[in-house]
Amino acid sequence: MKKVELLSPAGDLEKLKIAVLNGADAVYMAGKKFGARAFSKNFDENEIIEAINFCHLYGVKIYITINTIIYDNEVEEFINYVDFLHKNNVDAVIVQDLGMADLIHKIFPNLPMHASTQMNIHNINGLKYLKKMGFTRVVLAREVSLDEIVKMKKEVDIELEVFIHGALCISCSGECYYSYFETGRSGNRGSCAQLCRKSYTLYKGDEKLNLGDKYLLSPKDLCTVKKINDLISAGIDSFKIEGRMKSSYYVGLVTRIYRNKIDYDIVTDTDIINMKKVYNREFTLGNLYNQKGKDFINGYRPNHMGILLGKVIGYSKGRVKIKLYEDVNQEDAVRFIFDDEIGFHLNKIYKNNLLVNFALKGEEIEVELDEKIPKDTLVYKTIDKKLNEYIINSSNNLRKVAISGDFMISKNKIIFTFIDNGKTEKLVINNSVFQAKNKPTTKEEIKEKLNKLGNSIFVFDRLKINIPDNIFIPMTVINNLRRNMIEILTNNRINQKGNYLKNYYKFKNVNINITNDICFEIKTKEQIDYILENTNYICYVKDYLIYNKYKSNNRVIYKMPRINKNNVIMGNSLISEIGEITNNTISDTYFNVVNSYNVRYLHENGVKKVTLSYELNYNTLNQLITSYKNRYKESPNLEIVIYGKPELMLSKYCILNTYFKKDKCNLCKSNDYYLVDEYNKKFPIRSEDCYMKILNYKNINMIDKIPELKNIGITNFKLILDNESIEDIKLIINKMHENIFL
User: Fold this and answer.
1) Which of 22, 160, 703, 716 could form a disulfide with 256 if both were Cys (CB 3.0 to 4.6 A apart)?
2) What residue numbers bound the domain in which 277 lies?
3) How many C-beta neighbours within 10 Å does residue 681 have?
4) Are residues 573 and 700 in the same domain?
5) Among the three residues 379, 395, 411, which one is the final residue of a domain in this structure?
6) Are residues 675 and 655 in contact, defined by beta-carbon separation less than 8 angstroms?
7) With the C-alpha atoms ordered 588, 589, 591, 595, is the resulting torsion angle positive or negative?
8) Is 422 exposed, middle or buried (0-12, 13-18, 19+ CB in 10 A)?
9) Strand, coil or helix: what is 31?
């Protein structure tokens, strides 16, 4: 079988070390800034150097995530940080921001770049584009199926990395604005509030629909350990485990189990149970195997399920009586799940009214609890203390580096040759071999001393001793020889010469035509008819049937689908993904452009108008435009959304199809379904090519800000229509005219 890379997460040094010891081929981690897990502990610069050295000592690669979008006032710090990483021999950086990727490749051409999953690469055109741009690897969107991966690998010669275990985003490739619009915490900046894990109610119009589940957007966790052979056969280069914010127990155990599956094709039912103990929201094969509905979603609970421990069979005098389905030990953690939830550590366990340290499957126990728990309540074990102790204790000295050695005597000199990773080293010791007067030194004694490698990572898989009879070598000489060998081998692994190179940034000259467009993204035929007949505005049309009818009108521009399965590229279109970049296109908000370098990159590569991210405010907009003008001595051609309901997320998962169980339901076409959150906000559900869209509950409305925006250099304005009537559109246009002509 092909050798594949097992890539493990590291939220801090402890997790990094346990990932390495349990068999990771590579780890991914972040510094204190620019990583997409801002709430993980992460690494300062000294810890990064320690982490790189530790990984390289074991022959493990280390990738640093710098996969957030970057604002103009951060670019200098960002590039200095990349310079630090490159100088310290990091093996690759993982990038989301297209402008920063271009900058890195121009300044540090020898530094490998991996495209973050948040670039939303799901087709062959995206892979081809990123390869041409200088990327060595692409972390595919989690929505890509195994069949699609097989085709991609045959078509494009670039490394592919795929998530194989852990948490899933409900939104395509994590391209989600929900957290930003609702809390101000940007998922594109590593601060996602995980609103998909909250409870929701589905409404049809004003009618509340009782679905039985509350967590309608919360996916199960991915687990593909039983399918690894399929994934290897597909040609995937790197298997990625999610979990930088998970525990050391999770990182160690999951890494070890996948290592055993990859190397020995072994996975047991106990392995699956143990992975559930360290973390699960129930398991799914995810989009890799086109899992849908309740095979994909866990509407029951949004957090760690653990394993089913037992059932409540009674409550009396402050004690809950439980029938056990699994063994339990003191200091395990349990959770009772009923209308409410109660969880705690088991400090005291009673069996037959006696305190015990453990109890076995099938037995009945009692635990102290002030609150009465209903009979038949299910009890889950969420922490297994003994399993956690085993994971940590058994990780020590689990991984060793095999070396070979030859010890010989020649002309009363010790010649010790040792080989590690194909590199040969030699130590020669003079004046340390004597004629034995009493007891001669034996081969066994030398071998024993050389094999005492203690806490070093090295172990001999071959050690040949060739000495004459009747000689004496002081054991201190052998000990020093062993210590010198360890030092040389360690330095060789840590201090491998890097490939550092730094160039000066150069940019191309481009001729940008500054336009002054008002653009409506329309939904219905009635809307486009009104706008074309009564205004000189541009119409972006996402319904291809409508576009095809009006495409001869030069004011009608096709809006490409967010997920382009057909690998179509069209000039003079509104594009949403990297593989569609070509001449005479307009980039949509989903490029997440927040800096002037990204704008320039897109202009240099044929994009005539750049729609900026929702996540820019007045000050950061001003910074971007000022930086662009100062650096390039010209103005950019920019568009922003000033009206409409932003698309918070696009998902391959569909609530309506899940709970109404229809293959071709078309229920979303009614435009009458809503998700309602705990604050009674109504989020419309829409559809695009059978992908579910969740819109914001309210409109952006910055029409009255047009004069201020024009003043700082925004010349194009976009309005997104949903169910607006012709009367609504008239009011919007009148309001716009009041502000445009101020």
Assistant:
1) 22
2) 5-168+220-285
3) 14
4) yes
5) 395
6) yes
7) positive
8) exposed
9) strand
Measured between alpha carbons, how far is 285 from 291 in angstroms, rounded to an integer?
6
Does 476 lie in the same domain as 589?
no
**CA separation for the pair 25, 31 (Å, rounded):** 20
Condensed to tens digits (0 to 9), the pLDDT of residues 51-82 reads 999 999 999 999 999 989 999 999 999 999 99
How far apart are the C-alpha atoms of 701 and 682, rounded to whole Å?
18
Report the alpha-carbon distance of residue 708 to residue 706 in Å, rounded. Answer: 6
What CATH number should be reported for the domain holding residue 13? 3.20.20.70
Identify the three-state secondary structure at position 336.
Answer: strand
Task: Band the pLDDT of 669: cuts 50, 70, 90.
Answer: confident
For residue 175, give the nearest of 158, 196, 198 by alpha carbon.
196
H-run or E-run covering 355: strand 354-356
Residues 91 and 161 in one domain: yes
Q: Phi and psi dihedrals of 36, rounded to 5?
A: -85, 20
- Is residue 177 in a domain? no
DSSP label of 188: G
- Nearest-angstrom CA–CA distance, 630 and 628: 6
Nearest to 458 by CA among 426, 429, 483: 483
Angstrom distance (rounded) from CA 38 to CA 688 = 32
- In the numeric block, which tokens belong to residue 544? 């291809």
DSSP strands (E only) in 514-630: 518-522, 538-541, 556-559, 573-575, 585-587, 607-611
For residue 37, what pLDDT is reported?
A: 59
Which of 340, 366, 395 lies at the terminal end of a domain, its last residue? Answer: 395
Q: To 5 degrees, how large is the angle CA 95–CA 97–CA 101?
A: 65
Residue 259 belongs to a domain: yes
Task: Calculate the average pLDDT of the chain.
Answer: 94
Write down the residue that tokens 């150097």 correspond to.
Answer: 49
Handedness of CA 622, 628, 633, 634 (dihedral sign): negative
pLDDT above 80: residue 556: yes
Residue 594 lies in a domain: yes
pLDDT at 36: 53
The total number of structural domains in the chain stands at 4
Give me the CATH number covering residue 619: 3.20.20
226-260: per-residue pLDDT in tens? 999 999 999 999 999 999 999 999 999 999 999 99
| Beta strands 700-701; 238-241: pairing state | unpaired
Reading the block at residue 31, the tokens are 């510094």
Question: Are 377 and 313 in the same domain?
Answer: yes
Q: Which 8-state DSSP code applies to residue 219?
A: B
The CA distance from 529 to 541, in Å, is 12
For residues 539 and 531, give the distance between their C-alpha atoms in angstroms, rounded to a whole number.
Answer: 8
Amino acid at 371: E
Q: 């199926």: which residue's tokens?
A: 145
Q: How far is CA 5 from the centre of its chain?
A: 16
Quote the pTM value.
0.95
602 burial (CB, 10 Å; 0-12 / 13-18 / 19+) is buried
Q: Mind listing the pLDDT tens digit for each residue in 307-358? A: 999 999 999 999 999 999 999 999 999 999 988 889 999 999 999 999 999 9
In angstroms, what CA-CA distances link 632 with 45, 550, 601, 625, 628?
33, 38, 12, 11, 6
Give CA–CA dist 198/195, Å, rounded.
5
Residue 664 pLDDT greater than 70, yes or no = no
Same domain, residue pair 405 and 387: no
Q: What is the pLDDT of residues 264-293, one digit of tens each?
A: 999 999 999 999 999 999 999 999 999 999
pLDDT of residue 565: 85
Q: 670 pLDDT exceeds 80? A: no
- 331 in the same domain as 269: no
CA distance 543 to 537: 18
Structural domain contains residue 663: no
**CB distance 278 to 303 below 8 Å:** no
